[in-house]
Each structure stands twice: as C-alpha cells, then as structure tokens.
Design brief:
This protein is an alpha+beta fold and about 100 residues long. It has one domain: Alpha-Beta Plaits (2-Layer Sandwich), CATH 3.30.70.100. Helices cover about 35% and strands about 30% of the residues. A four-stranded antiparallel beta sheet has the order 2-3-1-4. Helix 1 packs antiparallel against helix 3. The longest helix has 17 residues. It is globular and about 35 Å long. It starts with a strand and ends with a strand.
C-alpha cells in the first residue's frame, strides 16, 4: 500500500494561538496513523519561494491522509489554525518505485 503525505508550508501570525491547533490535531493524527517527518526546523531556501515553516506528515496510506484531513476532528483543529496562519498544503501519494 502506497503511503500518503501532507506537505505544508505555513506562516504563523500568533504562535500562542497556533499551539492550541497543535494540541487539537494530536487526536486525529493518532487516529489516522500520522507520523511527523518534518515539523519546522532549520532550512536553507535554495530555489523559488517558501513560507517560514515546512511540515511533512506521513500516513500509512494516501486514503488515510485524505480521510484524516476530511475528518471532523481535524476540521475542528483546522478551525483553530485558520485565523492565525496562512499556508499552502498538498496531500500527495507516495512513490513505491
């Protein structure tokens, strides 16, 4: 089964409020088997444009990645994030080569 990934680039305007989103997303991420591969951290911008924070989350399948995003639990967490951040995100199927 091909894994699924969330790849997000985010600018956070209010880190204290954003922390409530982080706490709220823990339950849906656990439910759908999410594992953080990248969660912020140091980076070097080598090409193009990017936001301040990059996040990569691995799921056991592409279907699980989509289901997590669409779940009521994640949508409730997302409602906490939306007013205090701006981001771009894709949900993408992994490569089994």
């Amino acid at each position: 089964m091909t894994k699924g990934y969330w790849v997000a680039h985010v600018d956070v305007d209010d880190i204290e409020t954003y922390k409530t989103y982080i706490a709220a997303n823990a339950a849906p991420f656990a439910e759908y088997g999410a594992r953080f591969l990248v969660r912020g951290g140091a980076y070097e911008q080598t090409e193009g444009h990017c936001r301040a924070r990059t996040v990569v989350i691995e799921f056991p399948s592409y279907e699980a990645a989509l289901a997590c995003y669409r779940s009521p639990g994640y949508q409730a967490a997302k409602a906490l994030r939306d007013p205090v951040s701006t981001g771009d995100m894709v949900i993408i199927q992994g490569y089994d080569g």
